[in-house]
Amino acid sequence: MTTQTIEKDSEQANRPSDLPESPVAISCRQISKTFYEPVKGSRSWKNGFLGRKRPLKAVDQVSFEVFQGEVFGLLGPNGSGKSTLIRLLSTLLLPDSGRLTVFGYDVSKDQHQIRRFINRVSVEASFFKKLSAMENLRYAARIYGLPQEEGREKALSILSRLGIDQEKAHTSLENLSRGMQQKVAIARALMTSPTLVLLDEPTTGLDPKSKRDVQEFVEEVMDTHDATIILTTHDMDEAERLCDRIAIIDHGQIVALDTPQGLKDHVGTNSMEEVFFRLTGKSWEDVLADENHE
């Protein structure tokens, strides 16, 4: 199926109506990133048994802007480039070409400054598993320079808002469920009121109540903090509920960028899943199946 593209000016593509004067938080201009994978059967004595490598363009001349205070969604099938974009934004990877800035800092030159603004929550969170949720959060607070008492009070407040009671807060993480661990990861990311939060599939694996708790907490952060949020998710309802705008990425390129309602209006449907299928040629169920078999 031929990919359908919604043509937008990347600098002014449907700026959210509730952020009419917000400055640009992230500027991505013609960013590309290529990886190289070995070609099977290409090793021989002629090339020193190193073999040939095939280029794989994960991100292909991508341009977009994210405004301060915006919740910006990234949706795409497996291998589309969304995870590479998240790694570029967090300075874990550097672009091969183009220019990517975060709050005016260039990711290729100013990694240390950018990392001061960012906290990231990924689907596989890492902790000191022998320590409790409270101990992990207080440790994070000290790393970020918060006074001891302020760190304790903030940890208790965030855990309470996420529905984690006192008993669970003082239980070692290795004895908590996967869903509970993910809630602690989100609490840790929000301990220092970061300017940019990268939520990489934050509710994957959560039960319905935990998922709702996390979504409500993200909405609370949106209402009470001046944070910019980048969200990747496998939940279309979640994307529509939380995101001001959504970029759909496929084969390393953004094929559509608009508000959730704008995307549905363009395709002529009331379903975000139908939008995704029409723009990528792949059903959302197929995407989930691919991800589960990785």
Automatic annotation (TrEMBL):
Entry keywords, A to Z: ATP-binding, Nucleotide-binding, Transport
Pfam families for this protein: ABC_tran (PF00005)
SMART domains: AAA (SM00382)
Domain of life, source organism: Bacteria
GO molecular function: ATP binding; ATP hydrolysis activity
Domain ABC transporter: 39-276
Sequence ranges of Basic and acidic residues compositional bias: 1-12
InterPro entries documented for this protein: AAA+_ATPase, ABC_transporter-like_ATP-bd, ABC_transporter_ATP-binding, P-loop_NTPase
Region listing for Disordered, in residue ranges: 1-22
Family the entry assigns: Belongs to the ABC transporter superfamily.
Protein name as annotated: ABC-2 type transport system ATP-binding protein
The organism of origin for this protein: Lihuaxuella thermophila
